[in-house]
Amino acid sequence: MSRAAVLAGLGTYVPPRVVTNDDLSRDMDTSDEWIRSRTGIAQRHWAQPGTATGDLAVEAGERALKSAGSGDVDLVVVATTTPDHPCPATAPDVAHRLGLNAVAAYDIAAVCSGFVYAMASAAGAIAAGIAERVLVIGAETYSTILNPADRTTSVIFGDGAGAVVLRAGEPSEPGALLGHDLGSDGSLKDLIIVPAGGSRHPAGAAAESGARPAETYFHMEGKPVFRHAVTRMAASSRAILDRAGWAPESVDWFVGHQANVRILHAVADQLGMARGRTVVNLDRVGNTSAASIPLALGDAASRGLLTPGDRVLMSAFGGGLTWGSTALVWPRIVTG
Ligand code: ACO
User: Are 150 and 235 contained in the same domain?
Assistant: First the structure.
């Protein structure tokens, strides 16, 4: 029988600084009313300048290892859009700072779908016998790439990190990931992009002019992204539900990427799931990209929503474009 990746621990961390919609309205032509009604977001956490993604990842990673009851892992995967450096990857430093000497460590870049991609990658490593226990972290500091002059993106994103420990186990165990559906459409890469700072448009030359160039900031075409997010997350969710043999109405909790409450409700509607089964924490943390799903899981667990035996569907969508879904029966774990 094939080896499954089984959820053994979960930990989350958000930086302490809270930025409310009213805080943003003081410096930007926006309002609490617009942000709440168009997105569902009331506040987000932004790291203090000088705090990097790896710092948040270490905090969440520590909590996940504690939750799993063991610091013993042989692979660390960090999903992020905002790595500490273009080179090297953030994961080896995070592994080092967690005291996980010499373990394999690499980053996954799939923007808001990063955590789902990272879990699939970790599950593949477990199935192949490459790893026994994997620490999977989604961590972001979007505050470092948001353009303060762009109200369409600045109000949406927050910083944070969430992590899980996946261990080798049986497919029939509670907590076993019941398959993975992943996809991409690179023809639409310009819809969600940081234009400069990579090899196509190195940032250095423009930066010498003084002010930070607009091309080094995050850019998103909200309206088409909204449409694609609903279509792709619904189709990907259906694929995973088929694989798990679950009817949509039998799902206890839909943990979707926390981009916009209107997207989550539209996906639930398309799947024929009650909106009340949608986990929502974006009102308090905003869109935290690769950290979104583990932060939502942690929030739902701490609010007592997730109980052992619950059927949980996870689905994400993001830049690339990328999307992906997975599902599990909630295990008995103490989250951190
Ligand atoms: N405050 C006030 N007004 C605003 C703001 C703001 N912060 N932002 C935009 N507006 C204005 C616009 O200028 C526009 O004005 P106009 O009608 O005079 O032109 C109006 O509000 C409507 O703007 P839209 O962009 O059409 O607003 P929409 O309802 O589409 O909401 C939003 C925008 C929230 C970005 C939405 O499109 C969305 O959620 N998109 C999907 C985001 C997503 O799914 N991301 C996931 C992937 S992200 C990733 O991978 C990193």
Answer: no
Long-range contacts from 124-127, C-beta under 8 angstroms, 24+ separation: 125/75, 126/3, 126/4, 126/5, 126/166, 126/167, 126/168, 127/2, 127/3, 127/4, 127/5
Active-site residue identified among 112, 228, 260, 281: 112
CATH of residue 243's domain is: 3.40.47.10
Residues touching ligand 1 (Cβ under 6 Å) are 30, 34-35, 38-39, 111-112, 151-152, 155-156, 192, 220, 222-223, 225-226, 229, 259-260, 263, 289, 317-319
User: pLDDT tens, 128-175?
Assistant: 999 999 999 999 999 999 999 999 999 999 999 999 999 999 999 999
Same domain, 241 and 285: yes
Q: Please indicate, yes or no, whether residues 94 and 9 belong to a single structural domain of this protein.
A: yes
Q: Is the pTM of this model over 0.90?
A: yes
Considering the candidates 21, 260, 281, 287, report the single residue annotated as catalytic: 287
Are 162 and 59 in contact, with CB atoms under 8 Å apart? no
> Residue 234 belongs to what domain range?
180-188+218-329
